[in-house]
Amino acid sequence: MEMRETDRPGDEGLARALGWFSIGLGVAELVAPRGIARMIGVRDHRILLRAVGLREMASGVGILTQRRPAGWLWARVVGDVMDLALVGAAFRSPRARRGRLALATAAVAGVTALDVVASRRLSRRPGEPEDDAIRITKSITINRSPEEIYRFWRDFRNLPRFMRHLESVQVTSDKRSHWMARGPAGKRVEWDAEIVDDKPNELIAWRSLEGSDVETPGSVRFQRAPGGRGTVVKVELLYRPPGGLLGSLVAKLFGADPDQQVAEDLRRLKQVMETGEIATSAGPSARRSRRLAAAS
Amino acid sequence: MKANCWFDTHDIRVEEVPDPSIVNPRDAIVRITSAAICGSDLHLYNGYVPTMKKGDILGHEFMGEVVEVGSGVKDLRVGDRVVVPFPISCGNCFFCKKQLFSLCENSNPNAWMAEKMWGHSPAGIYGYSHMLGGYPGGQAEYVRVPFADVNPIKIPAGIPDDQVLFLGDILPTGYMAAENCDIEPGDTVAVWGCGPVGQFAIKSAFLLGADRVIGIDRFPERLGMAQKRSGAETINYEEVDVYETLDEMTGGLGPDACIDAVGMEAHAPGLVGAYDRVKQAAMLETDRPHALRQAIMACRNGGTVSVAGVYGGFIDKVPFGSLMNRSLTLRSGQTHVQRYMRPLLERIQKNEIDPSFIITHHMALDDAPEGYDMFLKKEDACVKVVLNP
Ligand SMILES: NC(=O)c1ccc[n+]([C@@H]2O[C@H](COP(=O)([O-])OP(=O)(O)OC[C@H]3O[C@@H](n4cnc5c(N)ncnc54)[C@H](O)[C@@H]3O)[C@@H](O)[C@H]2O)c1
Ligand SMILES: [Zn+2]
Ligand SMILES: [Zn+2]
User: Distance between CA atoms of B379 and B361, rounded to whole angstroms?
Assistant: First the structure.
């Protein structure tokens, strides 16, 4: 597992604490909704509180099991707003005890503020400039020698076999190549690239030519893994799009989760290198036959 | 072709679906002659395994005849009779080379889903949710078998399907559960659950040299089968306290090894059962680990708890302190089936085991939904259903 130097452990710690807070509150809300309702001064919301309890649990488990918990934290923020609305509704009810409610509101609002801070921090990696660039570092261990994997990668025409966003790469000279990527809605993004560093069986680095639409330096390192486990392949990519329409096309090349996209690309590289093919579960299901039936 | 498809909890239907075809060079297509319903299928049927999609073809315990092979498959020929192991393995990766076939790194195209749930992904499995690959299963007339050059085992003519079908899953599963106990002469092994997996765990424990094996369940026909077919002693957990009875039977030591052949849907009488059911329904835990709790508490100091039963996610109130303070060893895993198929086939050929003794029902593929229902409710003394398409 690679380390991300840019993640501040403090924020992960905060996220984790909020995760446990969620589970704790969730259990209390589920098991003793009446007690909690009494505690915060509301009477008639037992079922609602139970629902809130479930939501707290789900987001708690989500936060604890997620490596990058930003998404789940935002779910918490939504949950907090729900809680605030709930407490707000209780305020308007004549039977509510105002003093306790005010306290509860303050407590929930406090947690909301924490949630927002943690989510904002985790959504953008700290220290990262606020531009549209996509930066990705990913590693995988492949049960093949560095020589074999280097040879495969060095022929850039092979890249689209495992990099989903690429349509084709044409090699135009020993150092230069023309890359075509699939954008959303069939739009294409193209650029020319040159190899800027090439250490056989160790490293390949490339970048798009001056004046290209996209600035995309990238590199891949091949390092012999310990204990005869093959090779650790480490990829670093950066896509810095220009502004405007093309920029947003580039930003979408990797979908919503660029890290995962590249992780999947590397997994496919591993499959090709180790098994000679890319694993697929393509096959029949009653879904497809229905769709076919509907179409015909 | 016809296939048994999952639509929802307790809603499966035999539907007309397209035939499978070769996609990758190492694929083969197998025409199914026998497919069993497994206890693991019940976890899908009861809706406890996430990432199932409406229309998924079920079934991971099947055999048949090769009808087509891809260009990369050299050792299999059209017409060969094969049993297919349920974990899909590439044969090339670090884990396959270590014979940890159910941990193959290259067979789960949806590995990222499993990583979200479990941290890392195991191998793909036929008909067992999208988190484990989303592969169409074998309760159908035909199935596509990936990496067919390394997975299926050829079966010589003359041995009936019923004797070899279980080589693909539960016979190796029972065997691995017993092997994980590192049985020594004089050992007593207790087995929670006398379903098909439990029956084979009991038989295997004896084969591997256990002195005594104690089967635990509540269905008389299953307890009776364990006594008659393998010579086990039995405990009906609805009649006596399991922990006390085991202690009494083992001179206060506890069994040397305890096998959990029950899994995530353990039945528990009384308050504990209600507690787990409520927590499971409220998503506070995903599994009901009652048998596992008992197995840990009952095991003798320094003994082994071997978990063959399937668990999916999070469990609660597991006595981990008992495990730690008493130096217990915990072993588990989806079975590395490919490791056991050949040696177990040889034992079958030498008449050391005839696994067909667990089969209580043969049905047509069309009747799969009734088969599931009967197997779930253990009606008609049902222990194992085999479907013949
Ligand atoms: N590890 C693997 O690779 C693998 C392979 C196949 C099956 N399995 C798992 O093995 C388990 C058993 O499978 P099966 O086909 O035998 O299913 P099954 O449903 O027929 O058997 C389960 C048995 O456990 C009994 N049981 C339930 N609660 C119990 C308790 N508290 N104490 C003692 N017994 C109890 C039931 O009465 C039943 O007889 C399932 O979880 C299944 O998913 C694992
Ligand atoms: Zn099974
Ligand atoms: Zn493998």
Answer: 11
CA distance A283 to chain B (A): 6
Superfamily of domain B171-332: NAD(P)-binding Rossmann-like Domain (3.40.50.720)
Atom 43 of ligand 1: nearest residue by CA position = B40
Q: Which residue has the tokens 């096959």?
A: A283
> Residue A286 is nearest to which of B17, B91, B109, comparing CB atoms?
B17
- A204-245: pLDDT as tens digits: 999 999 888 788 899 999 999 999 999 999 999 988 776 666
- CATH architecture of residue range(s) A134-291: 2-Layer Sandwich (3.30)
**CATH fold of B2-169+335-388, please?**
Quinone Oxidoreductase; Chain A, domain 1 (3.90.180)
Percent of chain B at pLDDT > 70 equals 99
* Centroid of ligand 3 to alpha carbon of B63 (angstroms): 21
Number of Cβ within a 10 Å radius of residue A245: 9
Rounded mean pLDDT of B48-72?
A: 96
Please, where in chain B does CATH 3.90.180.10 lie?
2-169+335-388
| pLDDT tens-digit series, residues A169-179 | 999 999 999 99
Q: Ligand 1: distance of its center to the CA of B262 in Å?
A: 3
Handedness of CA A18, A20, A24, A29 (dihedral sign): positive
CA distance A190 to A167: 10
B18 touching chain A per CB within 8 A: yes
Q: Where in chain B is the domain with CATH 3.40.50.720?
A: 171-332
CB of residue B170 inside a 6 A radius of ligand 1: yes
Round to whole Å and give the CA distance between A74 and A80: 10
- Backbone φ and ψ for B122, nearest 5 degrees, come out as -85, -170
Distance A159 CA to ligand 3 centre (A): 22
Counting from 1 in the atom list of ligand 1, the atom nearest the Cα of B268 is 31
- Spell out the SS3 assignment of chain B: CEEEEEEECCEEEEEECCCCCCCCCCCEEEEEEEEECCHHHHHHHCCCCCCCCCCEECCCCEEEEEEEECCCCCCCCCCCEEEECCEECCCCCHHHHCCCHHHCCCCCCCHHHHHHHHCCCCCEEECCCHHHCCECCCCECEEEECCCCCCCEECCCCCCHHHHHHHHCHHHHHHHHHHCCCCCCCCEEEEECCCHHHHHHHHHHHHCCCCEEEEEECCHHHHHHHHHHHCCEEEECCCCCHHHHHHHHCCCCCCCEEEECCCCECCCCHHHHHHHHHHHHCCCCCCECHHHHHHHHHCCCCCEEEECCCCCCCCCCCCHHHHHHCCCEEEECCCCCHHHHHHHHHHHHCCCCCHHHHCCEEEEHHHHHHHHHHHHHCHHHCCCEEEEC
Does this model's pTM top 0.90? My answer is no
Distance (Å, whole) CA A62 – CA B117: 9
Q: What is the pLDDT of residue B128?
A: 97
Chain A closest-CA separation from residue B280 CA (Å): 12
Amino acid identity, position B279: K
Nearest-angstrom CA–CA distance, B295 and A151 = 53
Ligand index nearest the alpha carbon of residue B336: 1
Average pLDDT over residues B169-175: 98
Rounded Cα gap, residues B101 and B168, in angstroms:
13
Q: Which of A204, A136, A129, A122 is nearest to A171 (CA)?
A: A204
